[in-house]
Amino acid sequence: MTGYEGVLFDFSGTLFRLEPDPAWFAGLNDADGRELDDAAQHELLYRMTVPVGVPVPMAGEALRTWHARDLSSADHRGAYLHVLEHSGVAEEGERERLYGEFSNPLNWSIYPDTAAVLRAAREAGLKVGVLSNIGYDIRPAFEREGIEGLVDEFVLSFEVGHAKPDLAVFHAATAALGLPPERVLMVGDSEEADGASRAIGCGFAQVEPLPVNARPSGLLDAVRAAGAI
Predict the structure, then answer these.
(1) How far apart are the C-alpha atoms of 85 and 220, rounded to whole Å?
(2) Sign of the alpha-carbon torsion through 107, 105, 207, 224
(3) Sign of CA dihedral 165, 211, 213, 105
(4) Distances (CA, A) of 227 to 7, 166, 181, 220, 224
(5) CB neighbour list of residue 86: distance below 8 Å, 6 or more residues apart
(6) CA–CA separation, 92 vs 153, rounded Å?
(7) pLDDT of residue 127
(8) Is 1's pLDDT higher than 50?
(9) How many Å separate Cα 68 from the centre of its chain?
(10) What is the pLDDT of residues 20-50, one digit of tens each?
(11) What are the respective helix, strand and coil percentages of the chain, to the nearest 5?
(12) Does the pTM of the predicted model rise above 0.70?
């Protein structure tokens, strides 16, 4: 017996994945007038979703905004507009449009086993939380799928003022579930960001942030292997 009474799930790369529509990039040109090719588009997606590190050159206010990106909606917008500008999106209007697409929770795709895992956790009597470093409200993605009722608590960094791997956010999340950390399993795709939960006593199960169609049961497998369900 693991003794888990609750489970916290990361959002990006764990429950859902941002998989841009190619139409978002149609007609986009870099500063030299060249159209953004597939490689440039994939690199842009990586930079817009990387959980840790600095994806483009930054200094001064830009660097401050990047480090604060998940603590307020304003800094999130500023940070990612900077990333887009330094990733070859030359036109300001196109950067604003793309940021709108990237920050729309309804543009996120759900992993095939997400609903099954949340239901299994609920049926096992576990409390369920979603703990995400994010600068906007992701609840509409769950509402679209009809699974918002399977989540007891959403702990979003921009709402609580702390972001992973800051241990304060794990304390906030376990407290939101009303459980001591050692009774909570954290599930996420980042060893650095999500795995930091172990420092306060949580269990940790890691998943790979593969494309949605390439990971049919990875989440379910990871949670089962951890003994939570």
Answers:
(1) 38
(2) negative
(3) positive
(4) 11, 26, 16, 11, 5
(5) 56, 57
(6) 37
(7) 98
(8) no
(9) 15
(10) 888 888 878 777 778 888 888 888 888 888 7
(11) 45, 15, 40
(12) yes
